[in-house]
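Tokens for chain A. Residues wanted.
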């Protein structure tokens, strides 16, 4: 998250993020009438002429992901619904909320068919 705030106000001069602290020591946030004390201490707002822009960007770290074919998975005696072979690689994956059972994902070691079994 990036915040761009005007720095031409005297209280902003010593801070990279704006008039950070109120005289009571609490953090100030931009409000409708200027910079407001977060604790609501009653101190008057400062600088009603401010700009506040928020942008959010997120970059995906591709080094955390391993191609599915590169995984060495355990095998289990499970019949493939496509070819009828009785061996499949399997893994558990939490696809729903944490209080629900995990989903078992299978891949046939003969034909590569993929299927799932919800806990």
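Reply:
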């Amino acid at each position: 998250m990036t915040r761009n705030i005007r720095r031409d106000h005297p209280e902003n001069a010593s801070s990279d993020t704006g008039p950070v602290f109120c005289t009571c020591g609490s953090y100030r946030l931009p409000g409708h009438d200027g910079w407001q004390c977060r604790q609501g201490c009653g101190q008057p707002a400062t600088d009603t002429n401010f700009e506040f822009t928020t942008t959010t960007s997120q970059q995906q770290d591709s080094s955390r992901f391993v191609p599915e074919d590169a995984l060495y998975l355990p095998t289990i005696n499970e019949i493939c619904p496509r070819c009828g072979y009785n061996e499949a690689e399997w893994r558990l994956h939490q696809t729903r909320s944490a209080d629900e059972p995990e989903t078992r994902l299978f891949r046939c070691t003969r034909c590569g068919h993929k299927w799932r079994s919800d806990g």
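The beta strands are 2-5, 28-31, 34-37, 52-55, 75-76, 88-93, 103-108, 114-118. The longest strand covers residues 88-93.
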